[in-house]
């Protein structure tokens, strides 16, 4: 989704350009029990190189700049992105059928680096008891598009049952055309900081479908 930077840079008024953009390659592991019910979701985030550099410099890690963290540095970094404010959904929505699945906050957080990029992982439990995984859907997105998520890392199902995984990619060209048409309607002095920012993040999200047999 790096293409969004070009679009925003070309089309948005100056105040909006002050906002940084973070890009995250995302992976999901859906954990299913022997009855075909979803119990947990493990989320992997791989941050873009520039944001990773900013975090490492701010936390005074990887001082030799070799892109590799020591074990103690990994422990220090773990959980830096798992301090969530109340009500934050972790930029992940999961549905079982038509019902949105309630997920816990991040647990079992870990962090490492790959080629200078920070890669973190956290586990989220299904709250209120496991839910059927016979008709699951999942989307990773930030509705404001401050953060751009791209599901480029593995999406897997772990458990004793065999499940089917399919994915539907967003209509990027169509969504870009709609966004560009909207941006062109704005006045040159339109201030997005004082007005409602269009919530377009979901429009650019990959939709994951999982079907597991229930017993």
Overall 3D shape: globular
**Biggest sheet descriptor:** 7 strands, mixed
Oligomerization? single chain
Helix percentage: 10-25%
**Regions with pLDDT < 50 over 5+ consecutive residues?**
1-20
Structural class: alpha+beta
Beta-strand percentage range:
25-35%
Secondary structure tally, helices: 5
- pLDDT averaged over residues: 86
Count of all domains: 1
Find the count of extended strands (DSSP E, 2+ residues): 12
Global Rg: 19 Å
Q: N-to-C SSE series?
A: HHEEHHEEEEEEEEEHE
Distance from N terminus to C terminus (CA atoms, Å) equals 39 Å
Protein name: Polyphosphate kinase
InterPro entries: DUF1007
Keywords: Signal
Pfam family, one: DUF1007
Description:
The protein has one domain. 20% of the residues lie in helices and 33% in strands. It has 5 helices and 12 strands. It is globular and about 55 Å long. Keywords: Signal.
């Amino acid at each position: 989704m790096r293409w969004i930077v070009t679009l925003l840079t070309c089309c948005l008024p100056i105040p909006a350009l002050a906002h940084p953009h973070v890009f995250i390659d995302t992976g999901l592991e859906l954990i299913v029990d022997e009855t075909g019910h979803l119990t947990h979701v493990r989320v992997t985030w791989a941050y873009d190189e520039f944001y990773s550099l900013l975090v490492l410099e701010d936390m005074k890690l990887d001082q030799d700049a070799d892109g590799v963290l020591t074990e103690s540095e990994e422990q220090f970094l773990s959980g830096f992105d798992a301090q969530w404010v109340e009500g934050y959904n972790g930029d992940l929505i999961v549905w079982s059928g038509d019902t949105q699945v309630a997920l816990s906050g991040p647990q079992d957080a870990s962090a490492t680096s790959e080629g200078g990029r920070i890669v973190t992982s956290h586990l989220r439990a299904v709250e209120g008891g496991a839910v059927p995984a016979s008709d699951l859907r999942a989307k990773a997105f930030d509705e404001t598009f401050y953060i751009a998520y791209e599901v480029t890392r593995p999406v897997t199902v772990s458990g004793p049952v065999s499940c089917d995984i399919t994915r539907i990619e967003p209509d990027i060209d169509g969504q870009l055309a709609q966004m560009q048409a909207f941006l062109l309607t704005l006045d040159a002095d339109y201030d997005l900081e004082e007005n409602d920012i269009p919530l377009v993040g979901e429009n650019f999200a990959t939709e994951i479908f999982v079907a597991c047999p229930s017993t």
